[in-house]
Amino acid sequence: MTTTSARMQFPVVDLDSEARLYSTNAEREKYESQATLFGIIVALEYLERAYVRDAINAAEYTPACTRLLSQYKTMLKLVGDSVPSVEEFMGRYNMDHPAALHRVQVGVPATIEHSSEQQGSAETAKWVAETTQSFITFMDALNLRLRAKDQLHPRLQELMTGYARFKDSAKWEGRGKIVSWLITLNAMKASDEISEDQARQTMLSAIRPSINLTARQSVFLAQRRTVISLAKTVYTAHATASGAGRNGSTKLDDGSLDIKLASPKEMGGSGQGNNPEQLFALGYASCFLGALQLVAKNKNAKLSDDVKIKAAVSIGEAKGSGGFGIGVELTAIGADAALVHEAHTVCPYSRILKEGAEVKLNIQ
């Protein structure tokens, strides 16, 4: 009897060879970005727990958390569509890190989210000025119809940081809404846009704490210049704006003028209407011409009937102080230079731009 033995063949595995998880450089970068994102979330979790346990103080925690949040946002952009949301990513890899999840949803360190620090009145006045500027910048962004996450989130984050500086601000009406909007914006992709209804809700959410800022802190903005106050009022114009802000309407209360407003195409609007910059240009040009004529009359100087004043009014981001600002360029055609320069010191519009004016806010 002959016995035949068969030998089984097994694949040969080289244990020293590299196990490749990717086939292209793009895939390699994607996996590396996801691994970095994973590490950032884990680091945030440990950082949050260390701060809660007083293992590190606020001075150590705040910059470390801010840096991790910045790195998180960068990596979230790099991973792109492979990570639809941080919740999905954490669920995919069974990451049980609730403190880190809350932190990336809010987008600011806990020291800012829950701060109730307050110092002397001089420092408080500075904070009020800076926070008011942040508020104006954010509201301008909404009024200018900026709707993308990467346009609104940094501005809202800056406003939240400003509110957090004040004593008892955690109890301010509407502050919790801002945290909710930070979470909503954080969950969006950079190019995603909020709806018009969300924009209105966000605006209201930002306004409520700003009222508390003025009413509860009882501090006033220190003026950097002496503003013009009226000793005697000669005439008052009354106007009412309604509707969608720069895309709504404005009219004189006596019914003599009713204007449909529309943002210009350069600002994302339809351009099918007038805008505040145009109305300001009309008023400034006519007022300056009147001032020029008054100066010439007082000096017994001859002024041609063909003299014209052209006003160019621009809106854009302000240098240094941030937010949006107005720029004006006046051109006098057919007038003596000396008269024009003196008119600039007389014209009420010129004076309000150079010296400022007292503005009283009434809330009904």
Automatic annotation (TrEMBL):
Domain named VPS28 N-terminal: residues: 8-114
Compartment(s): Late endosome membrane
UniProt KW Transport keyword: yes
Gene3D superfamilies: 1.20.120.1130, 1.20.1440.200, 2.20.25.10, 3.30.300.20
Molecular function terms, GO-annotated: protein-containing complex binding
GO-annotated cellular components: ESCRT I complex; late endosome membrane
Keywords of this entry: Endosome, Protein transport, Transport
Protein name: Vacuolar protein sorting-associated protein 28
Taxonomic source organism: Rhizoctonia solani
